[in-house]
Amino acid sequence: MAYLRRKRHSLPPGPPQLPILGNYFAFSKDSRLFTVFAEMEKKYGDIFTVNFGFGHNSIVVSSVDLVNELLVEKSEEFAGRDTSLWSLYLMSGGYKDVAFADYGPVWTVQKKMAVKVLRSYVFSGKLDCLAKSAFEEVAPLLAKQSEPVDVDFYISLLIYNIICRFAFGKSYEIDDPEFVWLRKSSQKI
């Protein structure tokens, strides 16, 4: 116990942790990760520590200014990915995205699409331009939010719109019925 307490002194504050389980019970109350983090932010501030179990501490940053400082201004110092399986499960929506999905027919289709699209656009230099314009469409929606939001939704809007531009040569408004249908259809796969 003394070892666990000493180890946390160099980390930002966070909810009390149980040995082995970490903060498991904080996440079992609500499956929406962003709402759990919003509650923790109210208590612990813009930067706090959570433990996803088995000693895997993760630092959560909820301030746009801090995120910019850490991921843009000091990107090399804070690069890396959490290797905790449970936290990856939470962050990837149950291992359903192409980066963390289990090998199988769905992943194979996702990978083929991603590789084909990225290869053609990365080498042509169009990717940066498309990503910037897609971000400019979603940024005003995020700016209107006064409550904590699930950024996964907005990130998926960005990604789907970029993929639609790659695949169909067409950009969609966020509320376009065809775009909504495409998003919902691809999530059912």
UniProtKB/TrEMBL annotation:
InterPro entries: Cyt_P450, Cyt_P450_E_grp-I, Cyt_P450_sf. One of its GO terms (molecular function) is steroid 17-alpha-monooxygenase activity. GO terms for biological process: hormone biosynthetic process; progesterone metabolic process. Coiled coil: none annotated. The keyword Transferase does not apply. Keywords: Heme, Iron, Metal-binding, Monooxygenase, Oxidoreductase. Pfam families: p450. Belongs to the cytochrome P450 family. PANTHER family: STEROID 17-ALPHA-HYDROXYLASE/17,20 LYASE (PTHR24289), STEROID 17-ALPHA-HYDROXYLASE_17,20 LYASE (PTHR24289:SF20). This is Steroid 17-alpha-hydroxylase/17,20 lyase-like.
